Amino acid sequence: MGADSSDASGAVSSSTSGPTAERLEDLAYAKSQAELGGGLKRLEAIRVSGRGTARDRIRWLLDPESFIEIDTFITHRASEHNLHMLKHLGDGVVAGHGTIDGRRVYCFAQDFSVHGGSMGEMHAKKITKVVEMAERSKVPLLCIWDGGGQRAHDGIPALGGTGELDHMVSCSGRIPIISIVLGPVVGVSALAAGLADFTILGREHGQLFLSSPLETPEFASGELIADEIGGANMHASRSGIACLIAEDEEEAMALAAEILAHFPDHFDAMPPHMPSGDPIERANENLETFVPDNPNRPYDMTKVIEEVVDDGAFLELFEAYAENIVIGLARMDGMPVGIIANQPKVLAGCLDIDASIKASRFIRTCDAFNIPLVTFEDVPGFLPGVIQEWGGIIRHGAKLLYAYAEATVPKLTLITRKAYGGAYLAMSCKHLRSDYNIAWPTAELAVMGAEGAVNVIHRREINAVEEAERENVRQNLVSDYKKKFGDPYVAARNGWLDDVIEPAETRLRLCRALRLLRNKKEWTPSKKHGNIPL
């Protein structure tokens, strides 16, 4: 009986002791091999070039010791076409979850040391798995791209795996997605990176190409270098893909964290409230004489924004693209807000094709994640000209009107000076169900500028007088027109403005309105989705 008892206890001890020491050693060895990616030589070559490895980048992005890796042991599936290819654990992408400032996130980083970061079947499936897990968990997704498109060695299976990346589309508008491009990214990887809500490029090494630059005639002929075709500066100023450019890789991670700090974890949550020591009663005396007396003189609208928001902290996005409109993130009374503003010092603040597209996408992004919109308006109209008309300014301008009308978050508008014609309507006017519209005494709301209106309405009357008197007559008519139609109190009497305020009260009034509108709910009719004029 005693022997039986001893044997039984020995058996129990053996069955509950877990893996043997040998197996633990095998596991540790396998994990160490996975961390080597494509080998020490390749990892060192990447670091020598000024770039970080995939694991370096994840360490810079996440809180210390918070990263939990998944699918460490995945490898590509060998076939008769790629038996010669080495099987590297992880198959060229490091993926998992961790925290940023204590907030849960999913992330992945392509590993350039393994087959140039190219996307094979299992590589793509691994990314798709992380995307699906982020969507189910309702937490943000951060994507670090550094890879050369689809892996030719995998053949058709690579196409199948890559096609499953369409799960990023189902995540759109449900969780925040941020792409960080820190190396040459080509083909489908570039398309996937472009699906993100925001794309950050490293200045020195960040490149995006849909086709390899080797296939671009201008590159082959030596007219352009790779950076001029798909580099960070090009995507920031011409294509409008890069919302921010980072000077180095650690700054790229900090910028991603800064954007994320303004967004909730998912579409059904409220943005994170972060009270500051900046009181809402703070007066804005600097704005009292900010707008020039001459209506044609420019000024910098970003200075107005920085004067009004919490602690003057304004994260401007797409700064070098469509500079006639300013967009970005800030806080007011601790609440994240999306800022949209005309920029009078560029094209007099006119709306054109690029400005309409830039603002529309940002408005819809903020609306998807419950971030209130604050509009600073000084717009003389849509930019005239054949190039704009042929380019589809009607369709693109309609996007801006559509985006504002569709948005259900709190919408606040401040008119500082000009608000003319169709551009006034497109910039979150009261008629598009904006919640709180105010103006400074310098504001003018009209179909067009007084000078132009008088030349149209009173052309015969002006031409009928002596040439020496025409200018005096014209100026008198312009003054009368401004009193009858351009004065902000005329709009206020018609209910198109909620108030005309002193510039020093701007912050107080906007913060109070945000507090009142914090629990705003707007009913919209049931439908599959609208049909924005893309």
Structural write-up:
The chain is of the alpha/beta class and 534 residues long. The protein contains 22 helices and 17 strands. The chain has helices spanning 2-15, 21-35, 40-48, 54-61, 121-137, 156-163, 167-171, 188-194, 217-220, 226-230, 232-239, 249-260, 301-308, 353-368, 386-391, 393-406, 421-426, 450-457, 459-464, 467-486, 488-493, 506-516, and strands spanning 68-70, 93-100, 103-110, 141-145, 177-181, 184-186, 198-202, 207-209, 244-246, 314-317, 325-332, 335-342, 373-379, 411-420, 436-439, 444-446, 499-500. The strands form three sheets. Strands 10, 11, 12, 13, 14, 15, 16 and 17 form an eight-stranded mixed sheet that branches. The protein has a seven-stranded mixed sheet with strand order 1-2-3-4-5-7-9, with helices on both faces. Helix 5 runs parallel beside helix 6, helix 14 (353-368) packs parallel to helix 16 (393-406) and helix 18 packs across helix 20 (467-486). The longest helix has 20 residues, at 467-486. The protein is elongated, with a radius of gyration of 29 Å. It starts with a helix and ends in an 18-residue tail after the last helix. The model is unreliable at 1-16 (pLDDT under 50).
How are the elements arranged and paired?
Blueprint lengths: L1 H14 L5 H15 L4 H9 L5 H8 L6 E3 L22 E8 L2 E8 L10 H17 L3 E5 L10 H8 L3 H5 L5 E5 L2 E3 L1 H7 L3 E5 L4 E3 L7 H4 L5 H5 L1 H8 L4 E3 L2 H12 L40 H8 L5 E4 L7 E8 L2 E8 L10 H16 L4 E7 L6 H6 L1 H14 L4 E10 H6 L9 E4 L4 E3 L3 H8 L1 H6 L2 H20 L1 H6 L5 E2 L5 H11 L18
Parallel strand pairs: 3-4, 4-5, 5-7, 6-8, 7-9, 12-13, 13-14, 14-15, 14-16, 15-17
Antiparallel strand pairs: 1-2, 2-3, 10-11, 11-12
